[in-house]
Amino acid sequence: MIGIVVVNYKNEDLTIKFVNQELSKINSEKVIVIVDNESTSTSSEYLKSSLNAQFEDEALSSSNLYVLRNNDNLGFAKGNNSAIEFLTNYYRCEFFLFINNDIVFKDNNAIDYLICKLNSFDKTISMIGPRVIGLDGCDQSPLYYVSIFRKWFWGLWLKSFFTNSSLNKVFGGEEFNKTEGICYSIMGSCILVRASDFLEVDMFDEKTFLFGEEFILAERLKKKAKMIYYDSSTCVIHYHNQSIGKKFNSSQKLLLQFDSDSYYYRTYKNISLMSLFICKVSLFIRLFISKIMMKNE
Q: Which residues is 3 bridged to in the sheet?
């Protein structure tokens, strides 16, 4: 059985459409948990009735679709972990699928294919993901490790002011090889992982809120001598920012991402506090200049 987790944040119609149109394409035995972050009686009842689902306190009611109500916005890591705790209490899942509600399967059998592919490997490969393409046509997976200076110093300035520069592509990681095989990590919008391995590494690190979870999970798996596989032969489309764009502007998203990355680099890559400080100053200077430029336009 595969346990599927979808986090909803104030976008019930998108989530309902995703479950009905995309998750219905998965033929493998499955149980779906919709995590309703910052849940209200209106949002949760709407999800439940529209999807013919059950609430978490009605577990094992012959349903394979549940709405898990969280009063607070727990973010990505805590939200997904709360669903896994529910699933492990009531079901025996061999795999967990973490997937965004803004994903469209270009290949209808994408998830069933990934399950078969992961089953074909030995147990050293714990996680697999498909080719993920954004609306701009660019590949969002696989993910590679880049230094904090490359990402938050050189890359930050080049991405901001030299969008068409070839240097921007280099520092942004676009020159990395996108071929199928073992990789550092995969895009968090569509992750299939062995349930036993995910639980062994204590799930997602809950000290993050919205960004960087894929890199941290990769480090946790690596400590257990587990690997991640990128499969380019099946594809999904990612309609990015369908929920986050409603709550945070571009500056707020950058600050949230930097906070998560700071924790990742400091905790898992042993980056010095001085390096973090330099990159943080660089970020604030960049935001200040951008604000002035917007006022002058």
A: 31, 96
Distance between alpha carbon 56 and the CA centroid of its chain, in Å? 23
Q: Label residues 106-133 b or e (16+ Cβ within 10 Å = b).
A: eeeebbbbbbebbeeeeeebbbbbbbbb
Cis, peptide link before residue 130, omega less than 30° from 0: no
- Whole-angstrom distance, CA of residue 230 vs CA of residue 51: 32
What string of H, E and C letters represents the secondary structure of 62-106?
Answer: CCCEEEEECCCCCHHHHHHHHHHHHHHHHCCCCEEEEECCCEEEC
pLDDT (tens digit per residue) in 35-89: 999 999 999 999 999 999 999 887 666 679 999 999 989 889 999 999 999 999 9
pTM for this entry: 0.88
Residues 142-181 pLDDT 10s: 999 989 988 888 777 666 555 554 554 555 555 566 789 9
Residues 6+ apart with CB under 8 A from 43: 8, 10, 12, 36
**Distance (Å, rounded) from C-alpha 46 to C-alpha 217?**
33
Q: What does the block give as tokens for 107?
A: 């290949």
Q: What does the block give as tokens for 231?
A: 């499969």
First-to-last alpha carbon distance for the chain, in angstroms, is: 55
The single-letter code of the amino acid at 280 is K
